[in-house]
Design brief:
about 300 residues, alpha/beta, Nucleotidyltransferase, domain 5, 5-stranded mixed beta sheet, 10 helices, globular
Length: about 300
């Protein structure tokens, strides 16, 4: 029987599972619901039960799991709020349900960064910084081909980098003010656009919308809507600040921008690249800035990379 390796990406709603061969070729993938009731006690057991039901390609040699929370080097999750977990050592828990040689765990955004380095926009590079722009802002740091977790599992939490110093800002979900997440996420650009609408009399298609999304803002900006362009420029400004700060610390070979907001495409890439080059320390100005290419599969590729290593 052919040996295979499993990559798992645990989200708040669904769990994505991919089965790979030893050369990281994706054999098949599927999803199961994330059962968060009773503090998520069924999640890991459900994953294993689904593998026993779906798996038909040979012996499972390793399982890598990405979860939405801080994770230490030994696979211990520290208070994963979205899943209801407190402190959980994922490898130990999984091995209660299945006997496999290797089980490893990491933060989901870190897994996406590792996946993009492995088989996506960062392929061929070993030093990568990824920013995932969605409802919030996540990130992952890969150094010499390996994820940097930090002593508290909090390395790569780029979304909570302070970039705005304004005591009048609302509180971020983390309890601070001025986080990158507040101005560079899908939620953040909508908030920014609404603030500009209230502060100016600029004409805009957004004024005619009772409720608009980040996609609406970017679509309007692509049509040269002045107000929408101001909102996109503000998002790009703060992403440029954050990336310049990151470059001073780790000097990556490539920055990768992923998440739902990255679907905006060239307009986002061009503006962020321009702002980064304005702000970056001179030796790092030439760092490549790319859009992610693996989409929702980045997490499972990163998780399987953990065990293939």
């Amino acid at each position: 029987m052919e040996k295979c390796y499993i990559g798992v990406d645990v989200g708040g709603t669904t769990v994505k599972i991919g089965c790979f061969d030893s050369k990281a070729v994706l054999l098949y993938k599927y999803e199961i619901p994330t059962r968060t009731e009773e503090n998520g006690k069924y999640i890991l057991e459900d994953i294993v039960l689904s593998l026993k039901k779906e798996h038909c390609f040979g012996d499972i040699m390793g399982i890598g799991i990405g979860v939405p929370g801080p994770v230490t080097d030994d696979g211990t999750v520290l208070n994963c709020i979205n899943l209801g977990w407190g402190i959980v050592n994922v490898p130990c828990e999984v091995k209660k349900y299945i006997d496999v040689p290797v089980v490893k765990a990491g933060n989901d955004a870190n897994m996406a960064a590792l996946g993009e380095m492995f088989m996506g926009a960062g392929a061929g590079s070993s030093d990568v910084a990824m920013l995932t722009l969605g409802t919030g802002v996540g990130g992952g740091i890969v150094r010499d081909g390996r994820i940097v977790n930090g002593i508290h599992g909090a390395a790569g939490e780029i979304g909570h980098m302070p970039v705005v110093y304004d005591d009048n800002m609302p509180l971020c979900n983390c309890g601070k003010r001025g986080c990158l997440e507040q101005v560079a996420s899908a939620t953040g650009i909508v908030r920014t656009a609404k603030e500009i609408l209230n502060q100016t009399k600029d004409s805009s298609v957004l004024r005619d919308m009772e409720c608009f999304t980040a996609k609406d803002v970017f679509d309007a900006a692509k049509e040269k809507d002045v107000l929408a362009l101001k909102a996109v420029d503000k998002l790009a400004f703060y992403l440029g600040v954050a990336m310049a700060n990151i470059a001073c610390v780790m000097d990556p070979e490539v920055f990768i921008i992923g998440g739902g907001v990255s679907a905006a495409g060239d307009i986002l890439l061009e503006k962020v690249s321009e702002e980064y080059r304005k702000k970056a320390f001179n030796p790092s100005k030439g760092t490549a800035v790319r859009l992610a290419t693996l989409g929702n599969d980045a997490g499972i590729y990163g998780a399987v990379k953990l065990v293939l290593d």
